[in-house]
Records
---
Amino acid sequence: MRNLLRTAACSALVLASAVSAQEPQTVSWEILADLTTEIGPRLPGSPREAAARDWAVVRLKALGLANVRSEAFTIPGWVRGVEVAQLTAPYPHKLHITALGNSAPTPAAGISGELIYFQSLAALQAAPDSAVKGKIAFIDHAMKANQDGSGYGPSGQARRQGPSVASAKGAVAVVIRSIGTDHNRDPHTGVTNFDRGAAAIPAGAVSAPDADLIARVAAKGKPMTVALTLTGRPQAGLPSGNVVAEVPGRDPTLPAILIGCHLDSWDLGTGAIDDASGCAIITDAALRLKAQGQPLRTVRLLWAGSEELGGFGGDAFAAAHANVPHALAMESDFGADRVWRVGFRLSEANKPLADKVAAALAPLGIVRGANRANGGTDVEPMIERQKLSVIDLDQDGSRYFDLHHTPDDTLDKVDPVQLEQNVQAWLAVLGIVANEAGPISPN
Amino acid sequence: MRNLLRTAACSALVLASAVSAQEPQTVSWEILADLTTEIGPRLPGSPREAAARDWAVVRLKALGLANVRSEAFTIPGWVRGVEVAQLTAPYPHKLHITALGNSAPTPAAGISGELIYFQSLAALQAAPDSAVKGKIAFIDHAMKANQDGSGYGPSGQARRQGPSVASAKGAVAVVIRSIGTDHNRDPHTGVTNFDRGAAAIPAGAVSAPDADLIARVAAKGKPMTVALTLTGRPQAGLPSGNVVAEVPGRDPTLPAILIGCHLDSWDLGTGAIDDASGCAIITDAALRLKAQGQPLRTVRLLWAGSEELGGFGGDAFAAAHANVPHALAMESDFGADRVWRVGFRLSEANKPLADKVAAALAPLGIVRGANRANGGTDVEPMIERQKLSVIDLDQDGSRYFDLHHTPDDTLDKVDPVQLEQNVQAWLAVLGIVANEAGPISPN
């Protein structure tokens, strides 16, 4: 069984009751609340992502940002379909399942087959092909919640690589335990990819309680069969796009500060923590910076599209603006909980700049981390292309993977107090780096 | 908005990770785990409830209980159907909805209509019929989590009475905020009833985040329309039944001790906390009592059927055993969290008995409450008919309504340590009352 309880260290914010309260009167809250309410889910390449771009252009112009525009690109997309699964033997149970992005479709009538249990991706990798061929592979795995989100890298491999490994061994479909740290009945979606040579097969994730059930039955040594209908399917050439805006600097010849978030979201929730909150945070901070007086350097905002299916927005932005010089990049894409650490990628010559930033953040309770910041998916292509400096404002990820890519990613999960702490941290950093006259360099 | 956060006082037990652990080797855990795994959801009147009765008879006999039998009755049942809802204007959103028990069906193609917002049942009651007629009524309401579960009475009226009130005013359907204290995306089902004169109409509950969304849109004054398909429908004459078993006493002429729980469950989860845990607790306690030596009085176990649709099992038991004398009744039907208080319904002459019970429970951290115990739904009909004494072992309900009647009512939500405390509390009480030679009387 999988039943280690953490009774005391409960990290989830839970809403107490349906008691009315005033909404915060901040730009960040308004962006977050309105985007999740008026648009909601915005899957890459979908009509709702397009509606979100239109919404963003109108809103960012209204807020007084400059050079607001939508920049189109197309993506190899994926559209969700019917998703239903049933454990049919030894005991009948409905399974709460969602398809992974890039899953191949089952026939509309579904498929049935033996469900073969693997305790981990490594166990699947070690299995002979004959144990998998013609079956539906189930990949279990452990994931622990922690402040820095470091469980996502290793345990997320079950989602990223698992389907491809199962396919290469001849599985007809694959089901994984959701990549998450909650025990709600809602599964976590997310993207997978099939390696060259591994045919795309239907791939889904079940909720943690459903995975527990499968693990318990497997532990009893009982053969399992499952009926699976997942009709989501890849669709090429879908329209997507970035939204870009600016706070123009006094000296347009100085390389700009690039700040990023992503506008698209998975479609199960309303994309509140992933990543409406990021766009809300960076935009409110940029506007507060502007309100303090025109900064020296231009601050360029990237609300990227199609991050969730593979970072296509970041790639498109780096390609489209390859010749527009930037100095430093930052991104907010880890929810809306408080910033607890700042990390840098700055040269030894820029140590005074880093010291100044760290000193400005200390009153917000933010500690200084190592000099190996990496930005985020949406700004990384430009960081690599232009060899940019980076500052990371690391957010508390203790409960992020309770909600990540689930129907539970909704507005009520955002704590306005922590959201505001993020904006203040971003403002503190922008106030320094956007007014830095000297060179800013990563090494 | 509805966004009061309780960050510190998070009551939910959350499972840390998929780390294997040994299952507890207790009868209570085995009953709970096996019933939720091998049977799972067991809606009153359904084939799965019948399978659960068969399972229970086999298990209780194997555990060494006496006179184990299934006692059939029929119920006015209800069967679940398709349940889909979409906010169609002013913004398109999928709503996470479930039908309430006794909901009338929509046509298979669903219905569409204006969604009219009421902040509470009282607001709906106060509205003129003209504001409701032909529309789909939405009933919002507040519910607070608390140890004694006392929020369920008042806020649950939105579910129990709301549909009937809406119907009487001419609503074509009704949607309520789930009766619950969580903020997961899963709605809470539960039974409603239509008063004489109020036609049954389609009735559903949306999850708290969906209700928040509706409340936010309503607060903006925007007209809302909703498309609703709820095909669940009443079905008369469904087969149900109780399972009864005994630990025979040394003196069969003494009135027995009746201990109850319910075997049926709502069908969204696996009925772990509602109420497999109750049956697990009372049965383990009865078996430990037996292991200590034959008690003076017979202890009669009632695993009632069809509690969730209206306490039909308790009614059937009271009618079938009207002439079998009982002295005192107890029930476990409030989850699996620790017992924190003991309540009595005992005569002044039985004060020494109550004192003895309270003293035996004190080492388990259980405080003494008032002398107004009421048993539970499954034993109440017999309490009323035979004027029985009652002892309540009140469980901590702080997180009960996070899970109650949702897909999240699964095995992983049960804390084995607290489950065991329940069994020990029950054993302490049974050891006293089942060996009481003198009369036991409620007043």
Note: Chain B has two domains: 27-78+236-433, 81-231.
---
Amino acid sequence: MAGSKRIRIGVLGASGYTGADLIRLAARHPNMELVVLAASSHAGKPLAEVFPHFTFIDAPALVKAESADWNSCDAVFSGLPHGTAQDLIRELPRDLKIVDMSADFRLRDVGVYHKTYGREHAAADLLGEAVYGLTEHYAEEIAGARLVACPGCYPTASLLALIPVVANKLVDPADIIIDAKSGITGAGRSLKQNILFSEAGEGLSPYSVGTHRHAPEIEQEIGRAAGRDVFVNFTPHLIPMSRGELVTCYVRLAEGVKPDDLRDALSFAYQPRPFVKVAEKGVIPATQNVRGSNYCQIGVFADRLPGRAIIISVLDNLVKGSAGQAIQNFNLMFGLPETAGLEQLALFP
Amino acid sequence: MAGSKRIRIGVLGASGYTGADLIRLAARHPNMELVVLAASSHAGKPLAEVFPHFTFIDAPALVKAESADWNSCDAVFSGLPHGTAQDLIRELPRDLKIVDMSADFRLRDVGVYHKTYGREHAAADLLGEAVYGLTEHYAEEIAGARLVACPGCYPTASLLALIPVVANKLVDPADIIIDAKSGITGAGRSLKQNILFSEAGEGLSPYSVGTHRHAPEIEQEIGRAAGRDVFVNFTPHLIPMSRGELVTCYVRLAEGVKPDDLRDALSFAYQPRPFVKVAEKGVIPATQNVRGSNYCQIGVFADRLPGRAIIISVLDNLVKGSAGQAIQNFNLMFGLPETAGLEQLALFP
Amino acid sequence: MAGSKRIRIGVLGASGYTGADLIRLAARHPNMELVVLAASSHAGKPLAEVFPHFTFIDAPALVKAESADWNSCDAVFSGLPHGTAQDLIRELPRDLKIVDMSADFRLRDVGVYHKTYGREHAAADLLGEAVYGLTEHYAEEIAGARLVACPGCYPTASLLALIPVVANKLVDPADIIIDAKSGITGAGRSLKQNILFSEAGEGLSPYSVGTHRHAPEIEQEIGRAAGRDVFVNFTPHLIPMSRGELVTCYVRLAEGVKPDDLRDALSFAYQPRPFVKVAEKGVIPATQNVRGSNYCQIGVFADRLPGRAIIISVLDNLVKGSAGQAIQNFNLMFGLPETAGLEQLALFP
Amino acid sequence: MAGSKRIRIGVLGASGYTGADLIRLAARHPNMELVVLAASSHAGKPLAEVFPHFTFIDAPALVKAESADWNSCDAVFSGLPHGTAQDLIRELPRDLKIVDMSADFRLRDVGVYHKTYGREHAAADLLGEAVYGLTEHYAEEIAGARLVACPGCYPTASLLALIPVVANKLVDPADIIIDAKSGITGAGRSLKQNILFSEAGEGLSPYSVGTHRHAPEIEQEIGRAAGRDVFVNFTPHLIPMSRGELVTCYVRLAEGVKPDDLRDALSFAYQPRPFVKVAEKGVIPATQNVRGSNYCQIGVFADRLPGRAIIISVLDNLVKGSAGQAIQNFNLMFGLPETAGLEQLALFP
């Protein structure tokens, strides 16, 4: 039975939000045992001091990454910020399987990395080894990988909506507009004035307009699906909710294609996949449907503009957009059922 | 001095949100005296029973519209729902000035009205008389009008962002995508499950995708500015906040036009206007900046897609998007300073 | 193993919030199979039409309670409103085990019921049979019961905080003040203006001051613990969040008793219980710690007023305060591990 | 007329929330002219860079407190944190009138100050001069004062509810429990993890249980009204909303006194006051009624516990609880109408 296999888990970045959601899910995963929790700035503290909602479980105390016993682990998840992740991951024992939730190993081209993040990559050799962890599209490579680079939350929502329709040449890959909306956990746990409750609440603000770092990542994968280089519009907005992400994708239909054809292509692509569901015609996805779960819901709509369509995709940015997809990948890497530990339904209302 | 002129005001639809915000502002307007508050379903009740935040002012009790003494008024504001508004407004004394905040007199073409609202217009003769109350663009006509049809909240935000750039032929009027986001007061006070706190909170949902009734209104005015018929994409989303509205407009630049040209055209158009402010390059508008105020803020940004730009516009849907703009129009109709009673700054944080 | 036993479940009131949370948990419970979902006003609809977050599971369509095949069930959970619950429960087959989440069978005295709810009880004979389902204090009776009346959310939070200290005569049972705060799901799914997002959001209001129906229920159980009749203050407040409940209990210490003695008594009482945790000295409970989980956290504090103390208790009103505790009771009634299907950790952030 | 008198205003602490709300109100006050805005950490920046909602007004740029030309001012408001306030205020020219919104000059006894704030007072001589700025109870002293120490937000809400009933010996001053709830702006603008949107939202937490620094301030004034030293319980809770404060006061009635007697005493005390309104019997105050306004609403209720009553008081913590009351005091100090610049109604919904 699934539950009988125990895999020892380490976590890098245990004091951030993606680290926390990884721990939340790992603590109840039938095959995981948490053995190392690293969070350098909080080393020595009990986990429940940093995240009081973990007061109800037994967990190892936080340690410095440098002094952790990584050899006691079978796999490591990293919830570190980009930049820091590569510095620590390259120091890990080579026989560990690694699931990285940062941006450090997502870009396949070191030049694009350099241009996007403004620094040299400190572990360029690992870039070649890393597999892009968009589970529904790279399951086979992921199953055989040692290092998986989980997509960003926005790329996950966007690519699940767009890859099947681009790959099937149903839309023009050069005319894609992605209006993206994210809950505030997407901004992380670092202290910034604009994410204080009193400032972010009851308000709505776009950010990084025209310049967000998830755009090159989306373009990389849309480009692969299209078979050529593309640019896409990607405009993110900060929404006054903690979790949840929704992308509204505006696409131009290829000659003779109808919105229903997009829905059919998406349904066909995801019919065998447990976590992505295409909504019936007329049903509008909402983040409430997926809050706290690993599910993604996608809907297709005709546009009022002739020859265009709208694809809407929702997920929980910390689960399917981060820790949940990380575990989904881990499950494949260790030969477990893809859904192990991930079957929680949305917490609604 | 401004304060010496007293104008007697009646309100139709005093128990809805736009009615309430009209009363909030009217109660402190230097030239207004509230004499009739009509709300048929609550006739006989004190205003503070229906809106407890009015417990601090003296106000007339609510009456039925049919039995109100409209002749005691100089002007009437209507906050009724569409459909109902036309039925009651056509019965008002002809010498009253009327500012309607519903959708009933916004569409200039009775055929478009019929198609959009699925009913015959009950006061088609008044349609010809009505002036479209987008203050910044029709100030002169408004000043001479008897009946002003205030734009919807979405059209106000969208048209303020788009009319100057369309009229100056800086963008392609056939390729406009308006991704719109509104606070939940935009859905009104009628009881619906999806706007309960427990369901709308901590969530985000698109609605009326491809079918929202504000699209024809936007097209009517964009079409006038462009000098030809157009379709636009208009996709609204419900945001978990009470007030505030933001539209993200994706536009294709005309040959040789740069994003900065759009900003210049907008700045030139609104430089003399007290309530619309174009943000400096790099400054991103946010609904927090205008909450509870009559201001609108507009920003222009280069798109990552070559040849395209993004225009972002924010306002408070109940103020500049409804009751505030109604008073702005009223001020012009009665020869008062445009800003009378409307100078409140945003309530932030 | 636990997972091998399948128990067929019916749900009354499947379209309300407690019904929905029961379904959410039941769908992932290792021993439950959902076979009947009754929601009379929505009979014939798929569950996902009424609760779109259930689009990801297969579930029976909604049926009328009257026409459901209750004999296909082993146990029935009722999430019906009080009054309606008793009418339907008394019609169920006698061999079904029943877990009622309404208020109908909580009061042991039919006279108190009559006085509190203003109606005759329609199933007074079942009152005698019903066991009060505060799991931590009546586990043995619950294990042998056919009909369990789950406590209200407020009584659960209050009684878990107070019973051990009253029973041990550490506080004066005649001087207990319970200032209670609840998220808005506590008000249910019925449409009311004050729970619209636009009205309940960004605001705070007490309700039922001095008259709430949970007071007699709390007094019944405090009275049992004290060995005499008592009155308690109970003052609820509506908090702008969906889930979560916190009671701040102000108590007068018995002669010679110190706040630490209260903490010790609580720790002793709950040390063997999986879902109630007493916070260490200085740690302040917060609803964030238990959101979406079946846990309850209790803290004890010295008061600035000499001879007094403060006990603070938090839980999720829909889980430990309703559906979760219902399943906890069900687990005992069917000889399953008390924690089966209930181990989800809080969804934070 | 009121508007003709121009008073030049300086602000210390212009980059905090109380400073911002002071500026918001001052910018529209008929008699104020903003001439100095000091915010040392942001010196040199335009105000709108620190608070973008001020982009719609002309305002002086931010300067260092040390280099500001205080002689160009007639009055100074301080929104500095406690501790810092006294250091800067003692350096101001002696002929300036000063309204301090910090805690530095509220405690009349330098020993209590020392004990409460754990430091020596740096301007003890000014303590003797300062008048406690609870406008409704000290109007005469305030009118003649040079330095006014505005009460904290919690003390304002609590004292307005309690002073009249204590002074009239209607309740036992030794048995007062104040369960207080505040919006998150009450925690200020300093960066702390627990006030991030993702952590404070959808949650509720008590803080400073038994130890909050507003308790001695409340006791000082209750003691004056009672004619003897008292302790009170004061337990604050953080509520997921930006603005608003509600205190639920649990009191023991004096022999023969009824709850209606409390209401009568409060109504009598506040009948002539423009900003405090006692709710009619049965009407429950809510923070929504006063959001963004200078009003305070108070209600009285019978308790279920015999011989006890409940007094509930609401206000906006940044307005009547801080900047609004500061301006109310300023108005008295300069012989202006008490309501000048303060008549905005609540922003609801």
Note: The radius of gyration of chain B is 20 Å.
